[in-house]
Amino acid sequence: MPAKYHLKIEQDIPVIAECDVLVAGGGPGGLGAAVMAASSGAKTILVERFGILGGMASAGEVHPFMPNHYDAEGAGNAWISDHETCMDRPVYLEWLRAMAAYLPPVIRGKALADSEACNIARNIDKNAASLAAEDLCLKAGVKLLYHHTLVQVPVLDGRIEYAVFSSKSGFVAVKAKTYVDSTGDGDLAALAGCGFETGGPDGNCQPMTLCFKLSNIDRAKMPDYEQMQELYQKAKCAGILDCPRENLLYMETNDPSVIHFNTTRIIGRSGIDGIALSEAEIEGRRQFRQYLEWFRSSVPGFGNAQIHSIAQHIGVRETRRINGLACLTREDFIKRSKFKDAIARCNYPIDIHSTNGAGTEMVHIPHVEYYEIPYGCIVAKDVSNLTIGSRCISVDHAVHSSMRVMPPVCSIGQAAGLAAALAAKNGVGQSTLDGVEIRERLKAQGAWL
């Protein structure tokens, strides 16, 4: 048994702010929640542990936004075309349009059609993503609190009373009428005592990935995709690369000389265990160092490759899934289940990276179909004034692998924020609201439902 200390801290904690809606976490879900709550008339505070918004799109350097589009013609393009519909709106589309102000002149200042806005998502610029997210929040009237880490969530009679954060000022409290957990890992819900599940049938969560970009690439000399895969497999067989991923995953960026890599794979670590998360960062950078040396020494076009950027936070695919009033399962994905109180739609595939090594399970939905996420999946079962506005909603391991990508998470967040604003206005908890009414209000705001 490890040694333990009993530490009891008794001190007065200042309440630095009070509001209608408190959103914890400033990733895509937190952005959707905060902007929608504030736009609905609620006094809204968004608290973020880093100094920027965007979550995995910025701090995690995840690239690109994966497509979640309805294609009435069934063409199934990887990226949206004129006859396709982005199923994540309005906040997600607003975010993409706001990013355009920070992109190259060919895009900047142009009135973008939906399809043009969505194609920005093919090449995410992490700085544009964070700046645009802040622009949207400030425009909507959201109060932002950066560099505040959630540490405690006192609950009384099934309702959250306030949230305690650690900051440079010490412990501080923010009191709200309603709360939205957009931490991604369900930190606020877990601290409030909510039940949750983790992992798949083997108990393990999907692996983590440290994303990075290399620059100064000579694209004329760079091998094609198939040749790159052959070189990768040879390097693995020779013991030059020690990474369990089955292939080399890379993407283009707005700069032809810069290539994004989403190809490290860190297995056997938990994103909600402090020591394991630290070990995962170290393992991700160990794999990165191997990749960098291999690229420079063995891959044509990469001889002068430079480190362009490395994610400041490892990419975490899966941790907690908070128990809600409803739960979606793989069967709902297969049946393309629809609900009267649906708050989001998704047709991104089941995408399960092997929890213990190589391999990725992909189960696709035709672009003319989708499944829906009911309101009950985003309402915490164990706390009445809490909605979940991030990837940790009430679904099973398989559905989580589909809805976890950033566009539908933004839609889930906006639904959680709207519900929180309505609950605060009426002096009730989110668990008492009618999901059908939430759906209708989302539609009135421009959601595709």
The percentage helix is 25-40%
Structural class: alpha+beta
Query: What is the CATH C-level name of the largest domain?
Result: Alpha Beta
Number of helices: 11
Number of domains: 2
CATH superfamily of the largest domain: FAD/NAD(P)-binding domain
The CATH architecture of the largest domain comes to: 3-Layer(bba) Sandwich
Quickly describe the structure.
With 449 residues, the chain is an alpha+beta fold.
Task: Describe this protein's structure.
The chain is α+β, with helices and mostly antiparallel strands and 449 residues long. It has 2 domains: 311 residues, FAD/NAD(P)-binding domain (3-Layer(bba) Sandwich), CATH 3.50.50; 99 residues. It has 11 helices and 21 strands. A hairpin with a 6-residue loop joins β13 and β14. The radius of gyration is 22 Å and the shape is globular.
Task: Please supply descriptive tags for the structure shown above.
alpha+beta; FAD/NAD(P)-binding domain; 20% strand
Write the layout of secondary structure elements.
Blueprint: E1 15-24, H1 28-39, E2 44-47, E3 69-71, E4 84-86, H2 91-99, H3 114-119, H4 126-140, E5 143-145, E6 149-152, E7 155-156, E8 159-160, E9 163-167, E10 170-181, H5 187-191, E11 196-198, E12 212-215, H6 225-237, E13 250-252, E14 259-261, H7 274-298, E15 306-310, E16 320-322, H8 330-335, E17 342-346, E18 350-353, E19 360-363, E20 371-374, E21 386-388, H9 397-403, H10 406-426, H11 435-444
Parallel strand pairs: 1-2, 1-10, 2-5, 10-21
Antiparallel strand pairs: 3-4, 6-9, 7-8, 9-10, 11-16, 12-14, 12-15, 13-14, 17-20, 18-19
Helix pairs in contact: 1-4, 1-10, 2-4, 10-11
